[in-house]
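Intended use. Records like the one below are meant for learning the mapping from a protein sequence to its folded structure. Do not use them to infer anything beyond what is encoded.
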Amino acid sequence: MIKILELFGGIGAPRKALINLGVNHKCIDYVELEPNRVKAYNALYNHLYKPQDVRGWNLKPDILVHGSPCQDNSRGNKHRKGNTKNSRSKLMLETLRIIKEMGEWKPKVVIWENVKGVLDKGVVPVFNYYLQQLSKLGYTNSFDVLDARNFGIPHARERVFCISLLGDATFDFGKLKYQPMKKIADFLEYGPEDKIPEQYLITIPSMITKIKEFNPNPIGSYKRQLDVIKDYCYTITERQDRCPNAGIIRLSDPQYRYLTERECWRLLGFNDEDFDLMLKEFPTKEGKRNATLYALAGNSIVVQVLEAIFEVILNEDYGSDLISDARGQLQLIC
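Structure written out for the chain above:
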């Protein structure tokens, strides 16, 4: 039995990964501040959690996985705060506080995920401090940029994953199992010849002007463009009606459309049964796009990337030595 507790839990991508792997597990608790994410998680996994702030959390897991807020690290945020005093991204340092307050007992594995912008000048000092403090606490650190396209998902989503192991062992990213990227058509709800609901069609003149096929050499305010999806989509964010976004679909008229909410969930690694549960919790108004469902997907980690990481942790020699307690049970905090 794997015991899990999810920190910055979102919609529970780590738990979904364990379900897909067929790993027997039990959720001890779940910590997430945003009410809609809590509501979504409760519906997906049949729980009754309430919003919680990570700064008040205190437990003792064997594996700690955290994906702290990324907005102030993101390259797409012109006003990102990065290393400034009020940066939301500094919540990752709450993890250090949690570990320090545990005293002699420490998690055997610490996993952290965030956007590539965390490595940029002006932002990276927070990450470097995090690594230095974990080293002082007795951990070896290893990090890499992982792309969902290498794990079967046609979604250009590159994220920094840092895995810290207590003791001398070092996580080997070379042992991750890559998967061939699937066809984007397998994830689309509508084909180019299908009748598309009007709310997904791009009809606003200012957005049409930003389509790269129409305006390949933009100037001024049109430098931010809409890319047409071919083999894969671009990074799905919380807002798909912005420019740039995850990309748009070219229809046969020619006309263009946005990705649907269901397609975004599929491209984060969730299945249609999960999405149907979300529709019950967050009904879509007739003729409108559902901003909540887009936001919940855009905030998540790609499930298949987590599956690959968990498989290495569970299967490698250091896995059984580090994560089993006296009863042979695993405790996981996400």
